[in-house]
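Structure ticket #2291
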Amino acid sequence: PGKDLIVGAHHICMQMFRVDLGSGRSESSLNKISGYGGQVICGTYLGGTFYPASYIKAVVYAMDPEESFEYGVNPRTIGEIGEQQNRPVAAVNDGRLIYIATKSGYGTLGGAITVLDPETGEMAVYRHFVKDQNPTALFLHAASRSLVGTTQIHGECSTHVPVATHAVVFVWDTQARKTVHTCSPFEVESLGASALSADGRLI
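Resolution: structure written out below.
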């Protein structure tokens, strides 16, 4: 936002790239951005900094998108989310805090919403925000100060049999930091969404 820059990541090998739309120039990290394996899955931009999150071990970073890539420096590692979290799904922010949805590790159930304070680097992890389910999408509904998203009932890559009956649409209150509503519009094992419209409709 506010910059003619695109920041992205390759499918695997922990490499990232950036594109300057004004000049048409692009730059790739060429090498891994950190010592972790896997790939960057998602990220969010706040206060001049891009915050990527990567699989494996759900690791969060901070990057200056206007500076060149430098191993261990740009982006720098903030830390692992922990609590058996493994695969980030989405990251959003409300202008002050960052919210990251993650799936739990292989053979487990219980994804999380993590609240990251970029000023301190502190992370508060809310696992099982929908009990025994993993998130598949996450969006910010600014008007209600809520997060809205969808879930799946099986473990990562189907490595744990479901305990819950149906996937849900959830609403998570960012002030109370808890899930305040769930519903199952369809009796399915997994739900997903691509966007949240301005009038609050999941698409």
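Closing remark: The first strand starts at residue 5 and ends at 9.
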